[in-house]
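The passage that follows is intended for readers who have already worked through the single-chain material. We present the inputs for a multi-component assembly, then the predicted structure in tokenized form, and finally a short commentary. You are encouraged to pause after the input and sketch how you expect the pieces to fit together before reading on.
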Amino acid sequence: MASAPKGNAVVGQSGGPTGVINASLVGVIEEAKKHPEIQAVYGAVHAVAGMVKDEFIDLGKLSASTLETVAASPSSALGTSRDKPDTEYCRRILEVFKKRNIRYFFYIGGNDSANTAYIVNSVAEEAGYDLRAFHVPKTVDNDLLVTDHCPGYGTAARFVACALMGDDLDNRALPGVKIDVIMGRHAGFLTAAAALGKKKDDDGPHLLYFPERPVSIGKFLSEVEAVYKKLNRCVVAVSEGMCDADGETWAKKIAQDAEKDPHGNIQLSGTGALADFLAAQVKNNLKIKRVRADTFGYLQRSFAGLQSAVDVDEARRCGRQAVLYAMQEDNGSVAMKRLGNGKKYGVELFRTELKNVAEHTKSMPAEFLNADGNGVTPAFVEYALPLTGELPKTEYLGGYPKI
Amino acid sequence: MASAPKGNAVVGQSGGPTGVINASLVGVIEEAKKHPEIQAVYGAVHAVAGMVKDEFIDLGKLSASTLETVAASPSSALGTSRDKPDTEYCRRILEVFKKRNIRYFFYIGGNDSANTAYIVNSVAEEAGYDLRAFHVPKTVDNDLLVTDHCPGYGTAARFVACALMGDDLDNRALPGVKIDVIMGRHAGFLTAAAALGKKKDDDGPHLLYFPERPVSIGKFLSEVEAVYKKLNRCVVAVSEGMCDADGETWAKKIAQDAEKDPHGNIQLSGTGALADFLAAQVKNNLKIKRVRADTFGYLQRSFAGLQSAVDVDEARRCGRQAVLYAMQEDNGSVAMKRLGNGKKYGVELFRTELKNVAEHTKSMPAEFLNADGNGVTPAFVEYALPLTGELPKTEYLGGYPKI
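Having made your guess, compare it with the prediction:
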């Protein structure tokens, strides 16, 4: 292994924002400043889009207090991009890197970002340019391979768990059917987090639907009806990627119907459409009067002042660790391994190949889903609860014995 | 004034839940237990609906730690009801009160609840039954008369302010038009709270729309377009009670269109409909590609673990004070007066007549709205910011000087 090159570093944030992607950014900055091999630390404004346009800011000059505020802020402080660079795009990035003598590239994001780091690394190798390209994991969906879990998930999961705890109390107070649509196009981890605050047998959410378990409207309705008959209420958590029995998402099916609609200007593929569609199905088919639906939208990924302490800490560690690896290795992705059984919750970090993270994503393992596919198992709760931090205690009195 | 009667007390929670209505409940319970005139403290399960059905639980037996958990829990711990009792309904309540020797009636809720307390008090007077009926204010809408502000508003306002702070950062990171629909059918106070986290000139929300200021779609679109042209993004906060220029709510207009739709089974009067309608208007008319809309729904009134400390404290004090007034007066509603200028923020409580609170509701005063009707004034921020408690500090780096 050649010694670490002397030059500048760039860090970027890619894909959807999260509640702790800025903690990873600060981790990269604070560690990079410790290593004399790294001269300036540039921030790429709007990720790869800023890299090709040569738009950088100087992160090395930020005060310690600014860095702490950044680490506590949701969203992506450098701006982000949905661009998916191909080889040609990455060659243009490399030109900018050469011009600025950038020798370290840290990219915080999901599997597409790992893939970008991989391609940039490949074009640099081809060009004989000594570059160290590292990926730092980030996603609210928790769908990255190799790592036990992703920074960003714990904070979003905390939001969803607290939301459902409150919403279940609201539904006890004013009974009816309540449907909550939660992020997760292909993986149900975040929707599963809706169950983390459940304590009593009749606590909601009573039903959960995941992209991993397609369900017909008929099955969905009969399950809602069964809960409603038993409890006189029903709280349902639904992944935005919930699929019909044929495996196609309901979101897509509703959008197709809308295109056929001659009235035109009411968009049904908007954010609230799946929730409203499911609520209408319940209302019209089950003749239940009080049916409400909420779509959590961006609140679950960018809410100011709500972070999981464990998640922030791990996100920051992952950022720092990427820099440490870059002092010794050419490229890679930072991953987390959970400490073994019997130990207090914790993780150790390790390096994995960019390709291992870049190519595919992860779904919820079968052992986290109940047999009916409409709930989670204790194994999931054991997995996820340490990541959210302790949840608030709540109490409902209406079920206490009457006098 | 006759001395306080000896008998039992009942407390109920009415209307929509809030984040601190349980703190008021605990305030009533803890104060009631101090007064020997009050024997048992009953909780009416599901408000007036439980009273007529004689469904009560014994609140005097709850442990101190349970009471603290209740006070910290969102939603209405006793359950609530949307019933609006008339005189006949209240006579049935009185029969139950007589049977149980209930001499103290504490009702936590909005103006309808004050009206219920008023009617129950009237039928008791008619019947020559010595009852003390008190109303404790509660609403996220902040629309009660007489009181400076309502318990429940500060916590909901804190949620909305934090949500918009995060959402504005999200919109900086991934620019486009973002529309957030916020509770408030007739009063814009909660939507106005969306602006409380603004620090820099270009911080969002850039436009706010209130029930108090009707706006045509044409004006709405031209204002969004102007902001978008200037900033390349635009964050909009909209009251669910936003009205067209003719004063009718957009929510109602959309629902009417939906009824004419021959396709039938897609409900447009659901929670996401207004947000999706506005997003479609922007997308189709302004040809802006990235347009997103969220409806905050029940999260803003029932989110576990998020309370304004000031709001909790005031809610509990209002509950306690209702009991203290009941020892001296026949009936009334608890209200808050803000301490005079130059003093640190605080309130003193006072008693007002039930009728003063029961009959009408309050809109945002003109001095809280800017001249264009699409933003708030410093006077509003001065009014509302003490109620939410200190907001989180956040930082966005993307606008820092390029190097």
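Commentary: The radius of gyration of chain A is 23 Å. Confidence is low (pLDDT under 50) at residues 259-270 of chain A. How closely did your sketch match?
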